[in-house]
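Z., the sequence and structure:
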Amino acid sequence: MSDKGALTLSIKAIVIIVIAVLVIALGIGFITTIFSKAGALPELVDVSLLPNQPSPDNPLVLSPEEVTVKSGESAQLLAAYYNTGNKAYFRVKTGVCIDSDGNTYQPGSVGLSSLIEKGKAVGFRITIYGTDTVTNTALGQGQYLCELVAFETTSAGGCAQFAGGVCPQRHRTQFTLNVD
């Protein structure tokens, strides 16, 4: 009986090891996929990399002011925000884009949420997508006038503490989005 019991135990051990290896392999694949998309995450950059520096008179700047993206794909631009108010968390992301016919679109973007001291500036890369987030379709070819907006938020990027749950817009600037 002990030999048969040992054989049963060894088969169970092999099955458990095979399942564990499969779970680890799937976990590694999942993590690799997540981190391969990490290029889309906003990253802080030195404000001095921008040709125009943010200031109290011009708190939200970006470069370039004209971005070209293929329909359904993404492009990056540099932006910087200078906090003219009290120390707070801010999120910077794209606002509405308007095409030459006056139609409005909401392109996707990866915005930054960061704590910014009063009188300080933070620079970052922002990813702009050639996709309308409302309809989840690729933007058509053409030129769009878009805005970049700085909102005050909570540390988690939420707006629940503000009246009506709406983040107050602090500053905005425009840029041109060319979709090929």
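The chain has one helix and twelve strands. Residues 10 and 16 are 10 Å apart (CA to CA).

Let me know what you think.
H.
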